[in-house]
Amino acid sequence: MNRKNRIILSCVYWAFVAYVFVPLILMVLMGFKDSNFIGFPIRSYTLEWYTGVFDDAETISAFVYSVAIAVLSTVISILVGTWIAVLLEGRSFWGRAVVFGMTVLPALIPGIISAIAFRIYARYLGIEPGMGAIIWAHAVHNVPFVVLVVMARLSTLPKSQIEAARDLGADPLIAFLRITFPYLVPAIMGASIFCLLLSFDDFVRSFFLGGYEPTLPVLIFAKLKSGMSPEINAIATVALVLTAVIGVWAERFTRRMNKDS
């Protein structure tokens, strides 16, 4: 690669970095502004908006509600997605392509279309809008990502290990629990963190299927109706920091587990 191409690639890279991080930096800064409205110049700074986030019962309630939905939907996604991945990987049977296609379809459908479809189907089934409906929609949307991650990990599992366990008298369940499952733990952990973050940040499905109690993204959207204020920036910044911490921890944890395995 010559010098001209390196310069062009460097410019493109830093332009992309600026495109991603400059809005986030501005969002964090606006949360410190000592004013009821966001905008420049920032003449004085305050921590009032950030301390107010932790004193606001409505925000804390929405945060806990979002975390509960994310955890429950992730558990369902992991159980269903892992089972489907084990069923599909390394096996040939009639209709396998159809099962795989139907499994990954929820990840390909636009969010707004998916949310409307879930709302109509939930009403047809008699499921009331609320926590249960949101968990159901989030779980269905997250299953494809679990399937793809677990299948990728399964494809690298040496078949000789399972065959050796079977030769030693282990039945399929014991072979799965002692050979396959421990090998899948890094992939399952990575998929779990991804699903948690995906569910926590999901606005569209939460908005269409939610009841009277809002999730955190829906609450932020509701506050936006009265205009932008540093309070919204503070809430978004706290959520961003928590998400980033969990993401960094998950990346290091899965890397360590991959090395150990």
TrEMBL record:
<protein>
    <submittedName>
        <fullName>Spermidine Putrescine ABC transporter permease component potC</fullName>
    </submittedName>
</protein>
<feature type="domain" description="ABC transmembrane type-1">
    <location>
        <begin position="63"/>
        <end position="250"/>
    </location>
</feature>
<keyword id="KW-0812">Transmembrane</keyword>
<feature type="transmembrane region" description="Helical">
    <location>
        <begin position="133"/>
        <end position="154"/>
    </location>
</feature>
<feature type="transmembrane region" description="Helical">
    <location>
        <begin position="232"/>
        <end position="250"/>
    </location>
</feature>
<dbReference type="InterPro" id="IPR051789">
    <property type="entry name" value="Bact_Polyamine_Transport"/>
</dbReference>
<comment type="similarity">
    <text>Belongs to the binding-protein-dependent transport system permease family. CysTW subfamily.</text>
</comment>
<keyword id="KW-1003">Cell membrane</keyword>
<dbReference type="InterPro" id="IPR000515">
    <property type="entry name" value="MetI-like"/>
</dbReference>
<dbReference type="GO" id="GO:0005886">
    <property type="term" value="C:plasma membrane"/>
</dbReference>
<keyword id="KW-0472">Membrane</keyword>
<feature type="transmembrane region" description="Helical">
    <location>
        <begin position="62"/>
        <end position="86"/>
    </location>
</feature>
<feature type="transmembrane region" description="Helical">
    <location>
        <begin position="12"/>
        <end position="32"/>
    </location>
</feature>
<keyword id="KW-1133">Transmembrane helix</keyword>
<feature type="transmembrane region" description="Helical">
    <location>
        <begin position="98"/>
        <end position="121"/>
    </location>
</feature>
<dbReference type="Pfam" id="PF00528">
    <property type="entry name" value="BPD_transp_1"/>
</dbReference>
<feature type="transmembrane region" description="Helical">
    <location>
        <begin position="175"/>
        <end position="200"/>
    </location>
</feature>
<dbReference type="InterPro" id="IPR035906">
    <property type="entry name" value="MetI-like_sf"/>
</dbReference>
<keyword id="KW-0813">Transport</keyword>
<dbReference type="GO" id="GO:0055085">
    <property type="term" value="P:transmembrane transport"/>
</dbReference>
